[in-house]
Amino acid sequence: MAEMNGLMWFRKGLRVHDNPALDHAARSVRLLYPVFVLDPRFLRPDPSAPSPGSARSGLNRIRFLLESLSDLDSSLRRLGSRLLVLKGDDPADVILKALKEWKIGEICYEFDTKPYALAQDKRIKDFACASGIKVFSPVSHTLFDPAEIIKKNGGKPPLTYQSFIKIAGQPQPPILQTFSCLPPVGNAGACEFLDVPLMEELGYGDVGQEGFSPFHGGESEALKRLKESLDDKCKGSLASKSLTSEEMKILKSVEDIKWVANFEKPKGDPSAFLKPATTVLSPYLKFGCLSSRYFYKCLQDVYANVKKHTSPPVSLVGQIPWSNNEELFVAWREGRTGYPWIDAIMIQFIHWEKGRDVFERLLIDHDWAINNVINHDFEMKECRRRMGEAYALNCSKRKPWLLNAGT
Protein backbone atom coordinates (compact mmCIF):
# COMPACT_ATOMS: atom_id res chain seq x y z
CA MET A 1 0.00 0.00 0.00
CA ALA A 2 1.30 3.46 -0.88
CA GLU A 3 2.58 5.61 1.97
CA MET A 4 0.32 8.58 1.28
CA ASN A 5 -2.93 10.05 2.52
CA GLY A 6 -6.06 9.91 0.39
CA LEU A 7 -9.32 11.86 0.26
CA MET A 8 -12.53 10.21 -0.95
CA TRP A 9 -14.93 13.01 -1.90
CA PHE A 10 -18.55 11.83 -1.90
CA ARG A 11 -21.01 13.89 -3.95
CA LYS A 12 -23.24 11.38 -5.67
CA GLY A 13 -22.24 7.74 -5.44
CA LEU A 14 -23.46 7.55 -1.81
CA ARG A 15 -22.77 3.84 -1.46
CA VAL A 16 -20.10 1.26 -0.69
CA HIS A 17 -20.95 -1.41 -3.29
CA ASP A 18 -19.54 -1.01 -6.82
CA ASN A 19 -17.93 2.33 -6.06
CA PRO A 20 -14.80 2.54 -8.27
CA ALA A 21 -13.52 5.74 -6.64
CA LEU A 22 -13.79 4.28 -3.14
CA ASP A 23 -12.35 0.94 -4.27
CA HIS A 24 -9.33 2.68 -5.80
CA ALA A 25 -8.78 4.86 -2.74
CA ALA A 26 -9.00 1.90 -0.37
CA ARG A 27 -6.24 0.11 -2.29
CA SER A 28 -3.96 3.08 -2.79
CA VAL A 29 -3.53 5.01 0.45
CA ARG A 30 -2.36 4.66 4.05
CA LEU A 31 -4.89 7.01 5.65
CA LEU A 32 -8.26 7.70 4.03
CA TYR A 33 -10.51 10.72 4.64
CA PRO A 34 -14.07 9.98 3.37
CA VAL A 35 -15.65 13.43 2.99
CA PHE A 36 -19.01 14.96 2.19
CA VAL A 37 -19.36 18.75 2.09
CA LEU A 38 -22.68 20.33 3.06
CA ASP A 39 -23.46 22.79 0.28
CA PRO A 40 -25.56 25.81 1.37
CA ARG A 41 -26.53 26.31 -2.25
CA PHE A 42 -28.77 23.25 -1.90
CA LEU A 43 -29.38 23.05 1.85
CA ARG A 44 -29.78 26.57 3.28
CA PRO A 45 -33.45 27.44 4.05
CA ASP A 46 -34.90 30.02 1.69
CA PRO A 47 -38.02 31.80 3.00
CA SER A 48 -38.70 33.17 -0.49
CA ALA A 49 -38.84 29.70 -2.07
CA PRO A 50 -42.26 28.68 -3.46
CA SER A 51 -42.45 25.76 -1.01
CA PRO A 52 -40.55 24.80 2.18
CA GLY A 53 -36.90 24.05 1.52
CA SER A 54 -33.91 25.75 -0.02
CA ALA A 55 -33.74 27.72 -3.24
CA ARG A 56 -32.87 24.53 -5.14
CA SER A 57 -34.24 21.66 -3.05
CA GLY A 58 -37.58 20.85 -1.46
CA LEU A 59 -37.77 19.19 1.95
CA ASN A 60 -38.21 15.71 0.46
CA ARG A 61 -34.95 15.93 -1.47
CA ILE A 62 -33.10 17.32 1.53
CA ARG A 63 -34.42 14.61 3.84
CA PHE A 64 -33.60 11.89 1.30
CA LEU A 65 -30.02 13.19 1.06
CA LEU A 66 -29.55 13.32 4.83
CA GLU A 67 -30.89 9.78 5.21
CA SER A 68 -28.53 8.60 2.49
CA LEU A 69 -25.58 10.25 4.25
CA SER A 70 -26.51 8.69 7.60
CA ASP A 71 -26.72 5.27 5.98
CA LEU A 72 -23.37 5.76 4.25
CA ASP A 73 -21.80 6.79 7.55
CA SER A 74 -23.11 3.60 9.19
CA SER A 75 -21.70 1.47 6.36
CA LEU A 76 -18.29 3.14 6.62
CA ARG A 77 -18.22 2.71 10.41
CA ARG A 78 -18.79 -1.03 10.00
CA LEU A 79 -15.61 -1.02 7.89
CA GLY A 80 -13.57 0.84 10.51
CA SER A 81 -14.01 4.29 9.00
CA ARG A 82 -16.64 7.06 9.09
CA LEU A 83 -18.10 9.82 6.96
CA LEU A 84 -16.43 13.17 7.63
CA VAL A 85 -19.04 15.89 7.16
CA LEU A 86 -17.61 19.33 6.44
CA LYS A 87 -19.30 22.63 5.69
CA GLY A 88 -18.47 25.92 4.01
CA ASP A 89 -19.84 28.49 1.59
CA ASP A 90 -18.14 26.80 -1.37
CA PRO A 91 -17.48 23.01 -1.39
CA ALA A 92 -14.45 23.45 -3.66
CA ASP A 93 -12.86 25.84 -1.13
CA VAL A 94 -13.50 23.31 1.64
CA ILE A 95 -11.88 20.50 -0.34
CA LEU A 96 -8.87 22.64 -1.26
CA LYS A 97 -8.33 23.46 2.40
CA ALA A 98 -8.58 19.78 3.32
CA LEU A 99 -6.06 18.79 0.64
CA LYS A 100 -3.53 21.16 2.18
CA GLU A 101 -4.35 20.49 5.85
CA TRP A 102 -4.24 16.70 5.58
CA LYS A 103 -1.29 16.52 3.16
CA ILE A 104 -3.31 14.52 0.67
CA GLY A 105 -1.40 12.63 -2.01
CA GLU A 106 -4.44 11.45 -4.01
CA ILE A 107 -8.07 12.59 -4.24
CA CYS A 108 -10.78 10.27 -5.57
CA TYR A 109 -14.33 11.17 -6.53
CA GLU A 110 -17.02 10.08 -8.97
CA PHE A 111 -17.20 12.07 -12.21
CA ASP A 112 -20.28 14.31 -12.47
CA THR A 113 -21.59 15.82 -15.72
CA LYS A 114 -23.41 18.72 -14.05
CA PRO A 115 -21.85 22.11 -15.00
CA TYR A 116 -21.74 23.17 -11.34
CA ALA A 117 -19.73 20.05 -10.49
CA LEU A 118 -17.47 20.41 -13.54
CA ALA A 119 -16.54 23.94 -12.46
CA GLN A 120 -15.58 22.59 -9.03
CA ASP A 121 -13.62 19.75 -10.62
CA LYS A 122 -11.54 22.16 -12.69
CA ARG A 123 -10.47 24.09 -9.60
CA ILE A 124 -9.59 20.87 -7.79
CA LYS A 125 -7.69 19.43 -10.74
CA ASP A 126 -5.77 22.65 -11.39
CA PHE A 127 -4.64 22.79 -7.77
CA ALA A 128 -3.83 19.08 -7.68
CA CYS A 129 -1.77 19.31 -10.85
CA ALA A 130 0.22 22.25 -9.49
CA SER A 131 0.71 20.49 -6.14
CA GLY A 132 1.64 17.03 -7.39
CA ILE A 133 -1.58 15.44 -6.08
CA LYS A 134 -3.03 12.52 -8.01
CA VAL A 135 -6.65 12.66 -9.16
CA PHE A 136 -8.83 9.61 -9.81
CA SER A 137 -12.32 10.47 -11.10
CA PRO A 138 -14.04 7.50 -12.79
CA VAL A 139 -17.41 7.53 -14.56
CA SER A 140 -19.77 5.40 -12.49
CA HIS A 141 -22.95 7.42 -11.98
CA THR A 142 -24.05 6.52 -15.51
CA LEU A 143 -23.61 3.30 -17.45
CA PHE A 144 -21.49 5.06 -20.07
CA ASP A 145 -19.17 8.04 -20.32
CA PRO A 146 -21.19 10.75 -22.16
CA ALA A 147 -18.01 12.27 -23.57
CA GLU A 148 -16.97 8.93 -25.07
CA ILE A 149 -20.39 8.44 -26.66
CA ILE A 150 -20.22 11.87 -28.30
CA LYS A 151 -16.65 11.24 -29.44
CA LYS A 152 -17.60 7.91 -31.04
CA ASN A 153 -20.47 9.65 -32.83
CA GLY A 154 -18.23 12.20 -34.55
CA GLY A 155 -18.53 14.90 -31.93
CA LYS A 156 -22.34 14.96 -31.83
CA PRO A 157 -24.76 13.34 -29.36
CA PRO A 158 -26.84 10.48 -30.85
CA LEU A 159 -30.38 11.63 -31.61
CA THR A 160 -32.23 8.33 -31.23
CA TYR A 161 -32.18 5.66 -28.57
CA GLN A 162 -31.24 2.91 -31.00
CA SER A 163 -28.28 4.86 -32.40
CA PHE A 164 -27.15 5.50 -28.83
CA ILE A 165 -27.30 1.78 -27.99
CA LYS A 166 -25.40 0.90 -31.16
CA ILE A 167 -22.62 3.35 -30.35
CA ALA A 168 -22.47 2.61 -26.63
CA GLY A 169 -22.23 -1.18 -26.73
CA GLN A 170 -22.09 -2.91 -23.34
CA PRO A 171 -21.26 -1.08 -20.10
CA GLN A 172 -18.33 -2.00 -17.89
CA PRO A 173 -19.13 -4.76 -15.38
CA PRO A 174 -19.59 -3.77 -11.74
CA ILE A 175 -17.05 -4.41 -9.03
CA LEU A 176 -18.39 -7.44 -7.16
CA GLN A 177 -15.70 -7.73 -4.50
CA THR A 178 -16.73 -6.29 -1.14
CA PHE A 179 -14.66 -4.58 1.55
CA SER A 180 -13.71 -6.22 4.82
CA CYS A 181 -12.21 -2.97 6.13
CA LEU A 182 -11.03 0.46 4.98
CA PRO A 183 -7.84 2.40 5.76
CA PRO A 184 -8.11 4.36 9.02
CA VAL A 185 -9.08 8.02 9.14
CA GLY A 186 -6.29 10.49 9.90
CA ASN A 187 -6.32 13.42 12.31
CA ALA A 188 -8.63 16.35 11.61
CA GLY A 189 -6.00 19.02 12.07
CA ALA A 190 -7.59 22.46 11.79
CA CYS A 191 -10.70 21.03 10.08
CA GLU A 192 -13.80 20.29 12.13
CA PHE A 193 -15.48 16.92 11.61
CA LEU A 194 -19.27 17.12 11.86
CA ASP A 195 -21.94 14.47 12.17
CA VAL A 196 -24.68 14.16 9.56
CA PRO A 197 -27.08 16.95 10.57
CA LEU A 198 -30.78 16.65 11.30
CA MET A 199 -33.33 18.73 9.40
CA GLU A 200 -33.76 20.93 12.47
CA GLU A 201 -30.02 21.55 12.66
CA LEU A 202 -30.10 22.92 9.13
CA GLY A 203 -32.63 25.52 10.23
CA TYR A 204 -35.91 23.89 9.20
CA GLY A 205 -37.45 23.78 12.69
CA ASP A 206 -39.92 21.06 13.59
CA VAL A 207 -40.97 19.90 10.12
CA GLY A 208 -42.72 16.76 11.40
CA GLN A 209 -43.69 14.04 8.94
CA GLU A 210 -46.64 15.62 7.17
CA GLY A 211 -46.12 15.86 3.43
CA PHE A 212 -42.94 13.76 3.37
CA SER A 213 -42.36 11.04 0.80
CA PRO A 214 -42.70 7.47 2.18
CA PHE A 215 -39.46 6.54 0.42
CA HIS A 216 -36.37 6.83 2.60
CA GLY A 217 -32.83 7.40 1.40
CA GLY A 218 -29.76 5.22 1.66
CA GLU A 219 -27.99 2.24 0.13
CA SER A 220 -29.40 -0.12 2.75
CA GLU A 221 -32.93 1.11 2.14
CA ALA A 222 -32.56 0.64 -1.61
CA LEU A 223 -31.45 -2.98 -1.25
CA LYS A 224 -33.98 -3.70 1.48
CA ARG A 225 -36.82 -2.21 -0.54
CA LEU A 226 -36.02 -4.49 -3.45
CA LYS A 227 -35.17 -7.56 -1.41
CA GLU A 228 -38.52 -7.59 0.40
CA SER A 229 -40.39 -7.96 -2.89
CA LEU A 230 -38.79 -11.32 -3.72
CA ASP A 231 -41.26 -14.20 -3.70
CA ASP A 232 -40.88 -17.99 -3.72
CA LYS A 233 -41.42 -18.19 -7.46
CA CYS A 234 -38.48 -15.91 -8.08
CA LYS A 235 -36.29 -17.91 -5.69
CA GLY A 236 -37.07 -21.09 -7.61
CA SER A 237 -36.25 -19.46 -10.92
CA LEU A 238 -32.90 -18.24 -9.64
CA ALA A 239 -31.91 -21.52 -8.04
CA SER A 240 -30.86 -23.02 -11.37
CA LYS A 241 -28.25 -20.31 -12.00
CA SER A 242 -24.90 -20.15 -10.24
CA LEU A 243 -24.66 -16.68 -8.69
CA THR A 244 -22.45 -15.05 -6.11
CA SER A 245 -24.02 -13.89 -2.85
CA GLU A 246 -23.62 -10.29 -3.97
CA GLU A 247 -25.39 -10.96 -7.27
CA MET A 248 -28.18 -12.72 -5.38
CA LYS A 249 -28.52 -9.68 -3.11
CA ILE A 250 -29.38 -7.46 -6.05
CA LEU A 251 -31.37 -10.09 -7.92
CA LYS A 252 -33.55 -10.38 -4.83
CA SER A 253 -34.25 -6.69 -5.34
CA VAL A 254 -36.47 -7.51 -8.29
CA GLU A 255 -40.16 -8.16 -7.64
CA ASP A 256 -40.06 -11.32 -9.71
CA ILE A 257 -38.51 -12.50 -12.96
CA LYS A 258 -41.74 -12.42 -14.89
CA TRP A 259 -42.49 -8.85 -13.82
CA VAL A 260 -38.99 -7.73 -14.83
CA ALA A 261 -39.17 -9.54 -18.17
CA ASN A 262 -42.55 -8.03 -19.01
CA PHE A 263 -41.95 -4.52 -17.70
CA GLU A 264 -43.07 -2.00 -20.31
CA LYS A 265 -43.11 1.74 -19.80
CA PRO A 266 -45.37 3.74 -19.98
CA LYS A 267 -47.79 0.88 -19.23
CA GLY A 268 -48.77 0.68 -15.58
CA ASP A 269 -50.68 2.94 -13.23
CA PRO A 270 -48.88 6.31 -12.95
CA SER A 271 -51.17 7.32 -10.06
CA ALA A 272 -50.14 4.36 -7.86
CA PHE A 273 -48.17 5.81 -4.95
CA LEU A 274 -48.09 3.68 -1.79
CA LYS A 275 -47.77 0.56 -3.95
CA PRO A 276 -46.10 1.89 -7.12
CA ALA A 277 -46.24 0.18 -10.50
CA THR A 278 -42.46 0.65 -10.91
CA THR A 279 -39.41 -0.22 -8.82
CA VAL A 280 -39.10 3.33 -7.38
CA LEU A 281 -35.35 2.95 -7.85
CA SER A 282 -34.84 6.27 -9.63
CA PRO A 283 -34.04 8.34 -6.49
CA TYR A 284 -31.56 5.69 -5.35
CA LEU A 285 -29.88 5.74 -8.75
CA LYS A 286 -29.92 9.55 -8.79
CA PHE A 287 -28.13 9.84 -5.42
CA GLY A 288 -25.91 6.85 -6.25
CA CYS A 289 -27.28 4.73 -3.38
CA LEU A 290 -27.64 1.98 -5.97
CA SER A 291 -25.05 1.41 -8.71
CA SER A 292 -26.50 1.59 -12.21
CA ARG A 293 -23.89 -0.92 -13.44
CA TYR A 294 -24.77 -3.31 -10.63
CA PHE A 295 -28.48 -3.02 -11.35
CA TYR A 296 -27.92 -3.44 -15.09
CA LYS A 297 -25.94 -6.65 -14.63
CA CYS A 298 -28.61 -8.15 -12.42
CA LEU A 299 -31.33 -7.35 -14.93
CA GLN A 300 -29.26 -9.04 -17.63
CA ASP A 301 -28.98 -12.11 -15.41
CA VAL A 302 -32.77 -12.13 -15.05
CA TYR A 303 -33.23 -11.86 -18.83
CA ALA A 304 -30.91 -14.84 -19.27
CA ASN A 305 -33.40 -16.97 -17.34
CA VAL A 306 -36.48 -16.20 -19.45
CA LYS A 307 -37.43 -17.04 -23.01
CA LYS A 308 -38.92 -13.65 -23.81
CA HIS A 309 -38.65 -10.13 -22.44
CA THR A 310 -39.38 -6.55 -23.46
CA SER A 311 -36.64 -4.46 -25.10
CA PRO A 312 -35.35 -0.88 -24.70
CA PRO A 313 -36.53 1.80 -24.52
CA VAL A 314 -39.71 0.50 -22.82
CA SER A 315 -38.04 -2.35 -20.89
CA LEU A 316 -36.63 -1.98 -17.38
CA VAL A 317 -33.09 -1.95 -18.78
CA GLY A 318 -34.21 0.83 -21.10
CA GLN A 319 -34.88 3.05 -18.10
CA ILE A 320 -31.27 3.01 -16.87
CA PRO A 321 -29.50 4.94 -19.66
CA TRP A 322 -31.21 8.18 -20.71
CA SER A 323 -34.23 7.69 -22.92
CA ASN A 324 -34.04 9.63 -26.19
CA ASN A 325 -36.52 7.81 -28.41
CA GLU A 326 -37.34 10.22 -31.21
CA GLU A 327 -40.81 8.81 -31.93
CA LEU A 328 -41.87 9.02 -28.28
CA PHE A 329 -40.36 12.48 -27.96
CA VAL A 330 -42.27 13.79 -30.97
CA ALA A 331 -45.51 12.33 -29.59
CA TRP A 332 -44.90 14.08 -26.26
CA ARG A 333 -43.91 17.33 -27.93
CA GLU A 334 -47.02 17.38 -30.12
CA GLY A 335 -49.44 16.51 -27.34
CA ARG A 336 -50.48 13.13 -28.73
CA THR A 337 -49.17 10.61 -26.21
CA GLY A 338 -52.66 9.23 -25.63
CA TYR A 339 -52.61 10.29 -21.97
CA PRO A 340 -55.17 13.13 -21.78
CA TRP A 341 -53.65 14.95 -18.82
CA ILE A 342 -50.16 14.91 -20.37
CA ASP A 343 -51.46 16.07 -23.74
CA ALA A 344 -53.45 18.84 -22.03
CA ILE A 345 -50.38 20.05 -20.16
CA MET A 346 -48.31 20.07 -23.34
CA ILE A 347 -50.46 22.71 -25.00
CA GLN A 348 -49.59 25.19 -22.26
CA PHE A 349 -46.56 27.22 -23.26
CA ILE A 350 -44.24 27.16 -20.27
CA HIS A 351 -40.53 27.66 -20.90
CA TRP A 352 -38.58 24.45 -20.35
CA GLU A 353 -36.21 26.08 -17.85
CA LYS A 354 -39.14 26.92 -15.57
CA GLY A 355 -40.28 23.32 -15.57
CA ARG A 356 -36.74 22.06 -15.07
CA ASP A 357 -36.26 24.24 -11.99
CA VAL A 358 -39.53 23.03 -10.46
CA PHE A 359 -38.49 19.41 -11.03
CA GLU A 360 -35.08 20.08 -9.47
CA ARG A 361 -36.60 21.40 -6.25
CA LEU A 362 -39.39 18.91 -5.72
CA LEU A 363 -38.46 15.55 -7.29
CA ILE A 364 -36.19 13.35 -5.17
CA ASP A 365 -35.05 11.57 -8.34
CA HIS A 366 -34.30 14.71 -10.38
CA ASP A 367 -31.06 14.30 -12.32
CA TRP A 368 -29.49 17.20 -14.21
CA ALA A 369 -28.75 15.34 -17.45
CA ILE A 370 -32.35 14.21 -17.90
CA ASN A 371 -33.62 17.77 -18.25
CA ASN A 372 -30.64 19.27 -20.07
CA VAL A 373 -29.71 16.70 -22.71
CA ILE A 374 -31.25 18.39 -25.77
CA ASN A 375 -31.14 21.87 -27.28
CA HIS A 376 -34.29 23.10 -25.58
CA ASP A 377 -34.22 26.63 -26.97
CA PHE A 378 -34.32 25.29 -30.52
CA GLU A 379 -36.86 22.65 -29.62
CA MET A 380 -39.05 25.23 -27.86
CA LYS A 381 -39.47 27.24 -31.07
CA GLU A 382 -40.43 24.11 -32.96
CA CYS A 383 -42.59 23.01 -30.04
CA ARG A 384 -44.55 26.28 -30.07
CA ARG A 385 -45.25 25.93 -33.78
CA ARG A 386 -46.30 22.29 -33.52
CA MET A 387 -48.26 22.91 -30.31
CA GLY A 388 -50.33 25.51 -32.11
CA GLU A 389 -51.16 22.99 -34.81
CA ALA A 390 -51.89 20.26 -32.27
CA TYR A 391 -54.06 22.60 -30.19
CA ALA A 392 -56.14 23.64 -33.17
CA LEU A 393 -56.51 20.01 -34.27
CA ASN A 394 -57.48 18.77 -30.81
CA CYS A 395 -59.96 21.61 -30.27
CA SER A 396 -61.58 20.82 -33.58
CA LYS A 397 -62.14 17.28 -32.30
CA ARG A 398 -63.79 18.77 -29.18
CA LYS A 399 -61.70 16.99 -26.59
CA PRO A 400 -62.95 18.50 -23.31
CA TRP A 401 -59.68 18.15 -21.40
CA LEU A 402 -57.92 20.17 -24.10
CA LEU A 403 -60.63 22.79 -24.39
CA ASN A 404 -60.47 23.38 -20.63
CA ALA A 405 -56.70 23.36 -20.33
CA GLY A 406 -56.14 26.98 -21.33
CA THR A 407 -53.08 28.41 -23.05
TrEMBL record:
GO terms for cellular component: cytoplasm; nucleus
Entry GO MF terms: deoxyribodipyrimidine photo-lyase activity; DNA binding; FAD binding
Pfam families: DNA_photolyase, FAD_binding_7
Cofactor requirements of the protein: FAD
Gene3D superfamilies for this protein: 1.25.40.80, DNA Cyclobutane Dipyrimidine Photolyase, subunit A, domain 3, HUPs
InterPro entries noted in UniProt: Crypto/Photolyase_FAD-like_sf, Crypto/Photolyase_N_sf, Cryptochr/Photolyase_FAD-bd, Cryptochrome/DNA_photolyase_1, DNA_photolyase_N, Rossmann-like_a/b/a_fold
Keyword field contains Flavoprotein: yes
GO terms (BP aspect): circadian regulation of gene expression; entrainment of circadian clock by photoperiod; nucleobase-containing compound metabolic process
Domain Photolyase/cryptochrome alpha/beta: 4-143
Domain of life (superkingdom): Eukaryota
Record keyword Ribonucleoprotein present: no
Annotated family: Belongs to the DNA photolyase class-1 family.
The protein's name in its UniProt record: (6-4)DNA photolyase
